[in-house]
Amino acid sequence: MSRLKILAVASPIALAMGLSGCAMGGAIPGANTPITQSEEQQGREYHSQILQEFGGAMQGNSANYVRDVGQKIAVQSGLANTPGAFTVSLLNSSVNNAFATTGGYVYTTRQLVTLMNNEAELAGVLGHEVGHVAARHAQRRQQAQQQNTLLGAAGAILSGILLGDSQLGSTLGRAALQGSQLLTLGFSREQEREADELGVSYLSRAGYDPMAMSTVLESLARQSSLDAQLQGRDNANLPEWASTHPDPASRVRTTAQLAAGKPGNVLNREVFLRNIDGLTYGDDPEQGVVEGRQFIHPDLRFAFTAPEGFYVVNGTDQVTINGQSGQAELKVARSSGSLSQFVSQAFQALSGQGQAINPQIQTTTVNGIPAAYGQARANSGNTQVDVVVFAYDFGGGQTYYYQAITPAGRAGVFTPMFNSFRRISSAEAAQVVPRVIDVVTVRSGDTVSSLARQMAYSDAQEARFRVLNGLGANEGLRAGQQVKIVVRGR
């Protein structure tokens, strides 16, 4: 949750992004057509909106390095003859994501970069996204979805899984995935295959090892699996960059087949590691931090704890809380009128077509904070659900509020979370520091186990270390090798 954004709503931007599907052969029509003036103008108009939605563009050495690599791979596309024609941005986001917009605007998040292990993998990710632009996938998708925005389509996907296909489900479901995780649901398998093929081709043309596309996909598949395990989910099919469509293992194989026999062997591992040393890993404290089931925002000075069995995802405009028995989101809005009026208006916004929701609203105090809440039962498709809105007068003209939805009779699962919302002291806020990447050289006697114990986590240290460094389950280390660990910053 951004420190500055209050009830901001992401625009339904038609972006070319995501990575999924399987590789294919054959020529791709129009993939060498240069960027037009109108396409460049359109991308420029989207640019500021994207930066706002994804935490802003980072500055400094790492950002400059990503820009240079991105421009080097993008020029291989034939979209433009000069590297400067492409705008490549490193985004301050903790989600594994990369995308590009029409006109040569290319983006990757810092979190995705920290998962990579050499420059060729970085070039492969960015090359895949440039491939979407070269194949004009965004334009083709716009033509096919003239009646549906990207946000609406993704919201329907979520609501179909948890809430049923109803107006109420679509409203809350869409809000729960708005932001960085949402913007990876867009392309068909065929379009993803085309972008894979182009990305591998660009790698080879630039002299990079084209197998890097496969290895970065493998790391992403392992990360998705680890995330699912740590969050207690049954699957790893979150809508992230590597899993827009399921079966990432298949994509590892097919991109490797594409790379077979193609020239190129440059990895630039040491150069890459040198340029990401010190990069923030995970949440930026200025945007709030997830620690297990607890969310704490040192700048906004509040914290809460999710219920047992739920996991927390920090977004630009809201924090989402997801579990098998329901989902919720925490947002902030400008105060207007009484808390009871605010809760009533929130229910009106959640009401479905022809379905009025009129809860009985009550006032209370939670950890010294004035609060109001309401609960109502509603129809969602063929099932009944309970909807709760719980709002807090945090002072300074701001109202924090949860919107939660559960199967009928299960709303009480969120009661401990509602009661955990609290202010934090300046001393507690000062203790929240970022995690950062620290590149170290393996010494004689070092092992995976000994280095993993330095990871700034209390759980799954070795599993995290292996995924971060692209190490297989039985793979060891050698003296002189450089590896990444995650440590507490300052």
What's the layout of helices and strands?
Elements: E1 16-17, H1 37-53, H2 61-74, E2 87-91, E3 98-101, E4 105-109, H3 110-115, H4 119-134, H5 137-144, H6 150-162, H7 167-176, H8 189-205, H9 212-231, H10 248-259, H11 269-276, E5 280-281, E6 289-291, E7 294-297, E8 302-305, E9 311-314, E10 319-323, E11 326-334, H12 339-350, E12 360-366, E13 369-380, E14 383-395, E15 398-407, H13 415-420, E16 422-423, H14 426-430, E17 435-441, H15 448-452, H16 461-468, E18 482-488
Parallel strand pairs: 2-4
Antiparallel strand pairs: 1-3, 3-4, 5-17, 6-7, 7-8, 8-16, 9-10, 10-11, 11-15, 12-13, 13-14, 14-15, 17-18
Task: Characterize this entry briefly.
Helix content is 36%, strand content 21%. The protein has 490 residues and is α+β, with helices and mostly antiparallel strands. Helix 4 crosses helix 9 and helix 9 packs antiparallel against helix 10 (248-259).
- Uncertain runs with pLDDT below 50, 5 residues or more? 4-26, 146-185, 236-246
N-to-C CA distance:
21 Å
Main beta-sheet strand count, sense and barrel state? 7 strands, antiparallel
Structural class: alpha+beta
Number of helices: 16
Question: What level of helicity do the residues show?
Answer: 25-40%
Q: What's the number of domains?
A: 3
Strand order of the largest sheet: 9-10-11-15-14-13-12
General shape? globular
- The chain-level mean pLDDT equals 82
Number of strands: 18
Question: DSSP strand (E) fraction?
Answer: 15-25%
Which oligomeric form is depicted? single chain
Gyration radius, in Å: 23 Å
